[in-house]
Amino acid sequence: MASYAITPVQSELKMTLYNKEVYAGPDINGVTIIDRQPMGTTWVFSWPVTDGPAANANIVGHLQGTGVQVANNPNFVWHYSLGLVFGDKRFNGSTLQISGTSQINGEWSIVGGTGELAMAKGTVKRTEISYMGNTRISELKIHAIYTPKNQTIASGKFEKA
Q1: Is 10 helix (H, G, I), strand (E, B) or coil?
Q2: Which pLDDT score, from 0 to 100, does residue 133 have?
Q3: Cα–Cα dist 42/23, whole Å
Q4: Which pTM value belongs to this model?
């Protein structure tokens, strides 16, 4: 006997989060692993993601991945491959898989997800809201459609005839 479950129910996610990039000093959260000019520089990072832009905002996850410089004319352009790994109560352990080429103010594609955010598709609009010293704060407007694991509209068992 085989069992089955049908889960065509999808949910929409709209949220605004913030990430903090620190390029130097004791709180650095990214490092260059290949330094090439005029392009090809590669770095890895784990940027904290918070529910607000203030220093005392709650950390809800981390953007973890790599960035490769793919152009420098007229501005620096990077290709990113990253995961937004959630650590908050609602989506703890779930991820959004994000990819795309953009400048600081640009848009990435959500190309998948895991856990509660399985099979996510959508976009992340990234906008710089401050840059002081070696620290950049960006707003992340997330819009995704996903298939929650725990929503099933039909289930049962196949039996031999």
Answers
A1: coil
A2: 93
A3: 14
A4: 0.85
**Domain ranges, residue 52:** 2-158
Joined tokens for residue 63:
């953007």
Q: Residue 142 to residues 98, 112, 124, 156, 157: CA-CA distances in angstroms? A: 11, 13, 5, 35, 38
Look at the chain and count its residues. Answer: 161
Question: Any idea what the CATH number is for the domain that residue 109 is in?
Answer: 2.40.480.10
d(CA 108, CA 98) in angstroms, rounded, equals 7
* Under 8 Å between Cβ of 3 and 147: no
Q: Tell me the per-residue pLDDT of 19-31, one tens digit each, with 9 for 90 and over.
A: 999 999 999 999 9
Residue 67 bridge partners (DSSP)? 43, 80
